[in-house]
Amino acid sequence: MADEKQSKPENTEARGLFKKVKEGVKPFQDKLNQDLEALKKPEKTQLWKSILRVKHDETPRSRSLGVLTNVFLHLHPARINRDAVRYNYTWGMGGITFYLFVVLTLTGVLLMFYYHPSKIVAFRDILYLEHDVPFGKLLRNMHRWGAHLMIITVWLHMMRVFLTGSYKKPREFNWSVGVILLVLTMLLSFTGYLLPDDQLGFWAVTVGTNMARASPMLGHEGPFGPQMGMTAYNDVRFALLGGSIVDSNALLRAYIWHCIGIPIITATFMIVHFWRVRKDGGISGPAPMMLEKEMKF
Amino acid sequence: MDWHQLWVIISTPDNVPIVGLVFLVPFYIWYGLRQGFANDRLIAQLEADPEMAKTHHRKTQPYKSGWAKELHVWPFLLRMEFLAALVVTVILMVWSITLNAPLEEPANPSLTMNPAKAPWYFLGLQEMLVYFDPWMAGVILPTLIVVGLMAIPYLDTNPLGCGYYTFKQRKYAILTFLFGFVGLWVAMVIIGTFIRGPGWMWFWPGQTWDHNRLIFETNRDLHELVGITGAWGQGIFGALTVGLYFAVAGWVVHKLFTLTEFNRKIYARMTLLQYLTLQMLLTTMMLLPAKILLRLVFRIKYVWVTPWFNI
Ligand code: HEM
Questions:
Q1: What's A82-279's CATH class?
Q2: Which whole number is the average pLDDT over B295-306?
Q3: Which of A284, B166, B180, B266 lies 20 to 30 Å from B73, alpha-carbon distance?
Q4: Which of B96, B152, B184, B269 to mutate: most A Cβ within 10 Å?
Q5: Is the pTM of this model over 0.90?
Q6: Does A164 touch chain B if contact means CB atoms closer than 8 Å?
Q7: By the 8 A CB rule, do A273 and A176 touch?
Q8: A216 at the B interface (CB within 8 A)?
């Protein structure tokens, strides 16, 4: 009790101070409350608006803008043939192929952190990756199987496009772009095969590039090759391998083609491919069927 | 029956994709053609009934008059894409967790792998090496495959069947494509993977891969059968034979191509250049089965021998 009485004058003083502080803080508190209140509607914040550009609400217009104003989604039109959305027409094969390409790019970049394209360490890098790098084995497996899967899906995509006659007018050119993508996909996989520098890759690439020395005119064992002055040291095979055998230069060349050259070329052709899908009027179907008697001659 | 050998081949990690291919390709052919046949039935109905053709919306997909023809990409397409990405990711993850990528011994040029196989997607070319010299199997034919594929849209003058599955309206195109893709490419990949063993010899599934096996095949050249000696004689004889092949094959292709009334209409739409290019590509494609036949039935290696190249 005594203590209480004694502290009373101090108390009032403290209370006055407290009041002052409280008044001083009040504007900040109000602002804080305002901020907190604003957080309940994040879509009203400057940050949000600046990123998303358009406001979203449940209207058709807004849904369309959501697609059209997004750099990644604007590959798509805002609306699409209702029957094309189902799986049974496109089988999603082109999209899946592209998705696998993205997965391969991501896993590929991670693999590059652990790999030196040099005869002395390449094989050891793979062992290190498999046994010491966390999730290294999974990473390598995903890259390997993803590549195989991409080849299968690209073949199936081509078959789908053929069976639906989607290469016909006006999509002729895009089919040809597709054929180039098909070749590039297989070349990507092929150049990657050598990189582990094991027996499998070495002999596969030896078998593969041996065909190059039989090129007519350009290979030293091909028809008219010797007549053109081709030897094992200046023909196309030499240019591919950077030597007359599959060795360290071949490894380096395969690496550069695999990680830089072909991916850039492939990505470029994919941009053209997707652009043309849109410009040719979107997915070809399912279109209304045409009857024979309506054919014009 | 060597089940162990069979299992070794099928379960080799790099062969697993081809095991998948064996199921996926037939499945999708069936899946596509089934829709094609359904569409063909509707086409037959519409052709029989002009009134129906005027009003029907001409798809086998369900349709009601009130329905919008188009849907919003967001969410109707994007959710499908998201789902597809999810499914593919799961498949890839499970595959990668359960099966390890192969890693053999370090590369060793002095220790030849037997059989030394190209990656499976190029086995079609390697298999062609049995029947053609490398300059044909490895350079000319692949180039023609790529050029031929790129030329397809410019050679197919049939305007029907654009944007829907059908078989009836595009019989010739579809059968040719499937013959080339399945019969000559996928089949070669499968043979190269599962059948070819050491020394690139033919081993039936379940036959043990015997590394010491020898096959005594005496393959002869065609001119030896006829008894022509001398380089000039052989060269000219070969050129005539190949010329004869193209003439006969071209005639057969022409007969087949103009077999039906409908196809004759398609033929009439083609320019000479289009038709000759098509002829050249198809007859060259048929070189492969022709050469396979000659080799397997008549044990003939080359039909045309010159100092520079052999076919
Ligand atoms: C890296 C390889 C490829 C990628 C990523 C790719 C991607 C795509 C995508 C996403 C589409 C949209 C429709 C769909 O998903 O089916 C498409 C359509 C198309 N693709 Fe590809 N494609 C590739 C290779 C090919 C090949 C090899 C061909 C043919 C030889 C081809 C020919 C076409 C054509 C003609 C279309 C338009 C189809 C239509 O309108 O129905 N593409 N592609």
A1: mainly alpha
A2: 85
A3: B166
A4: B96
A5: yes
A6: yes
A7: no
A8: yes
